[in-house]
Specification:
The chain is α+β, with helices and mostly antiparallel strands and about 100 residues long. Helix content is about 15%, strand content about 35%. The protein has a five-stranded antiparallel β-sheet with strand order 1-2-5-3-4.
């Protein structure tokens, strides 16, 4: 059985492998091998998710498939995924500084 970690624990473990990217003036922390289960904003992926997410207050993250996320409450390790998390999101308690 896989150990269940809190979102902040998962993100802290992957912090060393993260990088940053700025889109439309919004800084994102890019986490490799992480995704969020559920919390999809539109119910379908968006082609230019990073630009759209940058303009939406309710969007705290997006994955590289274009699924915009309203919460980081179900962060999971998923090999091959990239999760872009807004650096200054109020809902991101686990955001590394």
């Amino acid at each position: 059985m896989q150990e269940v970690l809190k979102p902040e624990e998962v993100m802290e473990e992957t912090r060393a492998g993260s990088s940053t990217r700025t889109i439309n003036g919004t800084e994102y922390i890019v986490y490799k091998d992480l995704d969020v289960a559920g919390s999809d904003i539109k119910g379908y992926p968006t082609v230019d998710a990073l630009s759209v997410c940058s303009e939406m207050e309710a969007c705290v993250a997006t994955n590289h498939f274009g699924w915009m996320k309203s919460s980081l409450s179900h962060v999971k390790v998923m090999k091959g995924m990239y999760l872009y998390v807004k650096k200054n999101s109020d809902t991101l308690r686990a955001n590394p500084k």
